Amino acid sequence: MRRQTATSGIIPVGSSRSLRLDPLSLPIRFDAQDNRADGGIRQIELHRERVILRREVGGMRMAVNVRVCDFIGIASRNTDNGKMLLLQHRDPSLSIPLCVGADFDEIEAAASQWSAIFALPQLPEDKTREPAQRRRRHNVIKDRRPKFLARRKAGDLLNEAGNYQGEDEIIARD
């Protein structure tokens, strides 16, 4: 049986509570859904300066430590039964749910609190972010030949092309 804290992200059976985390009570440790993890759950530790995600995938335990400044901002998304507030990361699998509810005013108030606590911007609702483009390499080695090509020597022709300038044509006839 798994231990749950008072602010756990897993809703007990028969409870009408939805996920609501208090930004003034950091650090917080809670469980959230993760479809790719074993058991479908990941543990999240939320601190003012970092976030630690713990999950088990394929029997291998892992802990991912992410700085809060690496997150894009606080985003609110529409869901089937209300709104959800997320700590949005460029990698969607690292985004963290902060609050889920049907009261839009309460979600907006929570968004401003989380934004102030983490010093992150509030992201627009409908704007879907595209992944960042791959960065170009601006360094010395970008113009070098690959290692296996650098070992190769430039080849010479075995037989040089003959140059018969100014000579008559030679034809072999029977």
Describe this structure in words.
This protein is an alpha+beta fold and 174 residues long. It has a domain at 28-118: PH-domain like, CATH 2.30.29. 11% of the residues lie in helices and 29% in strands. It has two helices and eight strands. It has a four-stranded antiparallel sheet with strand order 1-2-3-4, with no helix packed on it. A four-stranded mixed sheet has the order 7-6-5-8, with helices on one face. A hairpin with a 2-residue loop joins strand 3 (50-57) and strand 4. The longest helix has 15 residues, at 104-118. It is elongated and about 100 Å long. The chain starts with 27 loop residues before the first strand and ends in a 23-residue tail after the last helix. The model is unreliable at 1-16 (pLDDT under 50).
Quick take:
Residues 125-144 are annotated as: Disordered. By secondary structure, the protein is an alpha+beta fold. The chain is 11% helix and 29% strand.
- Placed side by side, the strands forming the largest sheet appear as 1-2-3-4
DSSP helix count?
Answer: 2
Class per helix and strand makeup: alpha+beta
Which runs of at least 5 residues are low in confidence (pLDDT < 50)?
1-16
Rg (C-alpha, Å): 30 Å
Report how far the terminal alpha carbons are from each other: 99 Å
Instruction: Using the coordinates shown, work out and report the CATH topology of the domain at 28-118.
Output: PH-domain like
Mean pLDDT: 77
Q: Order of helices and strands, N to C?
A: EEEEEEEHEH
CA-based shape: elongated
CATH architectural type of the domain at 28-118:
Roll
Write down the CATH class of the domain at 28-118. Answer: Mainly Beta
Q: Give the % helix.
A: 10-25%
| Proportion in β-strands | 25-35%
Record field, number of beta strands: 8
